[in-house]
Write a structure and sequence with these properties.
This protein is an alpha+beta fold and about 200 residues long. It has nine helices and five strands, in the order βββαββαααααααα.
Length: about 200
């Protein structure tokens, strides 16, 4: 079992990374919460990992903290929630906000996440209620600053592709990024994605 990777961040294109560990490149899928906290390409990075094994592939999923990995592992135990939906949930809402939603039985906020309907939200609340009590109430760390991308259109396209990978339809992803561009802190893909997801949850 591969539980943690430390190496050079060779490439990052949301929501996937390539980490070079002594000459071996590992492709790792991550939540956007983790993606926001990555250093620049070429710098050293360390992520906790979960190895997903299916009939046709072995897939590594990375997390910025051991707590995020634990939350992911609890999520995929919920009936009807697979790894892709679990990553989408962790991308669309912070760990602490998700825990607060479970504790407060906040169905409305959960159903604003892509792919989460009312029945799934209710199931999450019922099945996760006891499990989230093990998590602390700390505040998630701020996102790391992002580097500049080649040009505006490319940045918007990259951000829209990341939203599509999280389950949004192409037209919705494009619309969300256009709206996010008006309020994002800067024009980097990371800021656009973060703003778009925040706006989606607040609607």
């Amino acid at each position: 079992m591969i539980g943690r990777l430390t190496g050079t961040l060779a490439q990052k294109r949301a929501p996937q990374l390539l980490i070079d560990c002594n000459g071996v490149g590992y492709e790792v899928d991550v939540s956007m919460s983790t993606y926001y906290q990555l250093p620049a390409e070429g710098e050293r990075v360390s992520v906790w990992t979960h190895l997903q094994i299916t009939d046709d592939a072995h897939r590594l999923i990375g997390f910025h903290s051991e707590q995020e990995r634990l939350l992911f592992r609890q999520l995929i135990k919920v009936n009807g929630v697979g790894p892709k939906m679990a990553l989408t949930i962790l991308s669309g809402i912070s760990e602490q906000d998700f825990i607060a939603c479970i504790r407060q039985a906040d169905v409305a906020t959960l159903t604003r996440l892509p792919g989460v309907g009312k029945k799934t939200a209710e199931r999450l609340i019922v099945e996760m209620k006891d499990k989230v009590e093990a998590f602390d109430d700390g505040t998630a760390p701020d996102a790391a600053p992002a580097g500049a991308a080649p040009d505006r259109n490319a940045r918007h396209a990259e951000a829209a592709e990341a939203l599509q990978a999280l389950g949004y339809k192409p037209a919705d992803a494009t619309r969300m990024i256009a709206a996010a561009a008006k309020q994002a802190a800067d024009d980097s893909p990371e800021s656009l994605i973060k703003q778009a997801l925040q706006q989606a949850v607040k609607r």
